């Protein structure tokens, strides 16, 4: 893990994410790309009508000064930090920055149960996850000496989930965490018999050509199942797959993925299929 992107908006939550990134950087000798996105729009930067250019320059300089001061934290000592400032808050740029700098992880802050706010506001979270080819680690609370010992990865074990599984396995191996695989079985249209589940899981195992152990957990919804299973097994983090630009995976239809991120008490990592 050579480079980690951390979007920062000066909020408490983004600093929680920065501290986690620092913990990872120190363990893996990584560089942190500290990303700040201004609220300026194209008209403010290019037009002199209704807004004076010198005011735009002043706002940019002020933001740069505040950003540099924000990065003067004692816990950043000994870690290489490269500040990156973008003039617009366009979250699809996160993936472009990851590609340009060959970053391997994005660490973001979230407010959690009160809704995805600040840098994780509304569709911005979805945009980052949809566009990010690299895993996105979501942090909501301050975590001292961040580490993951038990990592739960939940998916539907269809063939299309194999790329996400491989990324989750690589992530777990990097952090030297135990990877706990789970299938959440729910009532209604998505219910599968034990025989059907084992048939799907065995087909999945055959495709990845690995000896895997998959738990089957029954609950009233996928979200509650993932959260309850993770809590009952003392997981340190949860992994979920996403389909990127095509929306959330079949297993995580609708807002289930966001709900898991929003309501989870522990960090969540999303992996692109």
UniProtKB/TrEMBL annotation:
Extract the Pfam families matched here: Usp
Q: Under which name does UniProt file this protein?
A: Universal stress protein
Traced from the root, the source organism's taxonomic lineage reads: Bacteria, Pseudomonadati, Bacteroidota, Flavobacteriia, Flavobacteriales
Domain UspA stretches? 1-140, 149-271
Which InterPro entries has this protein been placed in? Rossmann-like_a/b/a_fold, Universal_stress_UspA, UspA
Q: Member of which family? A: Belongs to the universal stress protein A family.
Query: Origin, by domain of life?
Result: Bacteria
């Amino acid at each position: 893990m050579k480079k980690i992107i951390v979007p920062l908006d000066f909020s408490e939550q983004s600093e929680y994410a920065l501290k986690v990134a620092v913990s990872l950087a120190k363990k893996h000798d990584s560089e942190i790309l500290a990303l700040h996105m201004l609220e300026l729009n194209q008209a403010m930067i290019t037009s002199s009508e209704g807004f004076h250019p010198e005011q735009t320059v002043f706002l940019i300089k002020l933001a740069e000064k505040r950003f540099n001061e924000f990065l003067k934290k004692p816990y950043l000592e000994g870690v290489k930090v490269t500040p990156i400032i973008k003039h617009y808050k366009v979250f699809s740029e996160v993936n472009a920055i990851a590609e340009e700098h060959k970053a391997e992880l994005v660490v973001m802050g979230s407010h959690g149960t009160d809704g995805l706010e600040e840098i994780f506001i509304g569709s911005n979270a979805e945009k980052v996850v949809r566009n990010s080819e690299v895993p996105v680690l979501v942090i909501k609370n301050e975590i001292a000496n961040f580490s993951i010992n038990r990592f739960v990865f939940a998916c539907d074990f269809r063939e299309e989930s194999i790329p996400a599984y491989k990324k989750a396995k690589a992530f777990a191996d990097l952090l030297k965490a135990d990877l706990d695989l789970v299938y959440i079985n729910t009532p209604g249209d998505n219910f599968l018999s034990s025989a059907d589940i084992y048939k799907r899981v065995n087909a999945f195992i055959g495709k990845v050509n690995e000896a895997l152990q998959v738990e089957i957990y029954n609950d009233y919804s996928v979200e509650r199942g993932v959260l309850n299973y993770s809590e009952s097994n003392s997981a340190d983090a949860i992994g979920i797959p996403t389909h990127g630009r095509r929306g959330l995976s079949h297993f995580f239809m609708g807002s289930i993925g966001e709900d898991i991120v929003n309501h989870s008490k522990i960090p969540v990592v999303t992996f692109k299929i």
